[in-house]
């Protein structure tokens, strides 16, 4: 704040985020635990939310169960009706789902929250997508969308539990354009207890996605629903 | 605690950690910022600390500057005299340093805290070691040592600043053997404000190491010395 020199604009305060209350939030994979949990929290915060699924029928059922004005639609309609589209599909359907929605997602702000993980008897481990990360795969498949990555480290259990009023955790937000990451940070901040923290470009998404394998180990050892806080911010 | 059945031992409390006050802590790369900062904090906590360097002379100078009873030695003597050896060397000297110390590190508890990163004009990015991570490279090069990974996300600036009394952050500890990760967690807990949290096996070390690239982005955006807290633990 104090080091702007004559002729240059003052540095923008990174905590100064846009008003996102008018944005419609779509959730692809909105019938899964993570998608349902995010839909619930955004709707509870007063946001208009549309959950998407391959089946409009299943999406509508999930929307009714979540309540709070959430609507359901097939994935294509969900994408069309939304300003911001959260991708919460399973990793093994990630590429196919996005490829099929390239047109509907053109011009939209896409928020990938998919964690490519494998599981064996020793627990969870990171998968390495050819593109580097799920988010970079999304960016490669959606050249006309503004792709960001966020909401990786949230417990679907806590998100969905109506007895949990605050989710005390930070959301690492990654992307290439400040306006887009600011918007996603502002969305995260709608959920009580949550902050969106800018955490780099998409090329650094892999470690954020795969850190979920470590949080799964934490959960097992401590019988917790672990999340992360960024300190000194 | 409540679900142990007849004939099985009760689950061990993950917060119940061993007394490590008698262990000598060695720091390879103890003349660098990270190594010096860790040496300072452990010595301040009353631990016997030996910093190592390729040059015994430089190690002794660094030890004197750190004070609090820290001693300096060449890397081989540092390894021999220590029970727990923290590897805080630059990534590009990692393999050579460990290969040369295989004998001296045999039987020792090794704690790798190296972050393999590249830097360009867009900032920091993850390098991917052939072995998967620096920690797995250490484990491959040191078959007779007990290799763990920890202390990746600490700010060398905060560690070294005597005006900073508490380092309010968690240390993710990875390893294969519970006794070893418990010991490293107990070491982390010696530093006021710090906790050691078990966060999985070495195969999940890459994302913990490379998350430093994200913290560098956080530091740049927020003018912070970011660290991490694990929530709900």
Automatic annotation (TrEMBL), chains A, B:
Keywords: Oxidoreductase. The keyword Oxidoreductase applies. Coiled coil: none annotated. GO terms for molecular function: coenzyme F420 binding; cupric reductase (NADH) activity; ferric-chelate reductase (NADPH) activity; NADP binding; oxidoreductase activity, acting on NAD(P)H. Pfam families: F420_oxidored. InterPro entries: NAD(P)-bd_dom_sf (IPR036291), NpdG (IPR010185), P5C_Rdtase_cat_N (IPR028939), STEAP_metalloreductase (IPR051267). GO terms for biological process: copper ion import; NADPH regeneration. Residues 25-116 form the Pyrroline-5-carboxylate reductase catalytic N-terminal domain. Gene3D superfamilies: NAD(P)-binding Rossmann-like Domain. GO terms for cellular component: plasma membrane. The keyword Nucleotide-binding does not apply. PANTHER family: DUDULIN-RELATED, F420-DEPENDENT NADP REDUCTASE. This is NADPH-dependent F420 reductase. The lineage of its organism: Bacteria, Bacillati, Actinomycetota, Actinomycetes, Kitasatosporales.
């Amino acid at each position: 704040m104090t080091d702007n020199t004559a002729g240059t604009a003052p540095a923008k305060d990174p905590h100064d985020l846009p008003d996102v209350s008018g944005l419609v939030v779509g959730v692809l994979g909105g019938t899964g635990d993570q998608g349902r949990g995010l839909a619930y929290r955004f709707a509870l915060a007063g946001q208009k939310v549309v959950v998407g699924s391959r089946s409009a029928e299943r999406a509508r059922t999930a929307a009714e169960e979540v309540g709070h004005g959430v609507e359901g639609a097939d994935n294509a309609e969900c994408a069309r009706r939304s300003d911001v589209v959260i991708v919460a599909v399973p990793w093994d359907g990630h590429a196919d789902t996005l490829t099929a929605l390239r047109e509907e997602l053109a011009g939209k702000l896409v928020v990938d929250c998919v964690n490519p993980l494998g599981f064996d008897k020793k627990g969870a481990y990171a998968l390495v997508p050819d593109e580097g990360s799920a988010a970079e795969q999304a960016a490669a498949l959606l050249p006309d969308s503004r792709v960001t990555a966020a909401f990786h480290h949230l417990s679907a259990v806590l998100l969905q539990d109506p007895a949990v009023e605050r989710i005390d955790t930070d959301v690492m937000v990654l992307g290439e354009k400040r306006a887009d990451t600011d918007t996603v940070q502002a969305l995260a901040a709608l959920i009580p207890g949550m902050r969106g923290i800018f955490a780099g470009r998409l090329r650094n998404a892999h470690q954020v996605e795969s850190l979920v394998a470590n949080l799964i180990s934490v959960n097992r050892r401590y019988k917790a629903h672990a999340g992360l806080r960024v300190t000194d911010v």
